[in-house]
Design a protein that fits this description.
single chain, 172 residues, mainly alpha, three-stranded antiparallel β-sheet, 7 helices, globular
């Protein structure tokens, strides 16, 4: 069965390559970014933009958390574990700088924890040193089932539809 799935994936890849060739012509591979040959990639759900929009809605007006979450995700291992030893760097990459950059970033991490997207533990960097990210699909579903204020129904159902499109079975 895995061999059949691979061949279907290969067929889709070949079709997309042909469409790309027809639309853009021959591409110089040096101008594309290929995760098979380049370094520094991580696994990310295809629904991450929708997840981020849902998180921002849950976090309240003027307190977006999606860039903080995305930066933590990009620093995590495949099990969602992150060590926050360079907090000013992480805060800056999350979009927070200046005198209050780190404190604002910490507020966003705490908000993500309050919303159940992650858990934190103290360590040598202070009260925020270790982070465990949880499956965001399950957390969003929990918020939907709990009728948490700020969860936009249209975005939630867009997430459900996209999950079905890509074959994500986390809600099953």
């Amino acid at each position: 069965m895995a061999a059949a799935a691979k061949s279907i994936g290969k067929i889709v890849e070949e079709k997309q390559a042909e469409i790309r060739k027809q639309v853009f012509g021959e591409l110089d591979k040096a101008h594309t970014w290929d995760r098979k040959t380049a370094k520094g990639f991580t696994t990310i759900p295809r629904t991450m933009p929708l997840l981020g929009a849902l998180m921002d809605g849950l976090s309240g007006k003027g307190k977006p958390v999606s860039t903080t979450y995305l930066e933590l995700w990009c620093r995590s291992n495949d099990d969602g574990f992150v060590t926050l030893s360079k907090q000013s760097d992480i805060a800056f990459a999350s979009g927070f700088s200046g005198l209050r950059g780190v404190s604002t970033w910490k507020e966003r991490v705490r908000k993500l924890e309050e919303l159940k997207f992650l858990a934190t533990k103290p360590g040598v960097s202070g009260s925020l040193h270790y982070v465990q990210l949880w499956n965001p699909y399950l957390i969003i579903k929990w918020h939907h089932d709990s009728k948490t204020p700020g969860l936009a129904e249209d975005r939630y159902f867009a997430l459900v539809e996209r999950m079905i499109e890509i074959g994500a079975k986390d809600f099953a």
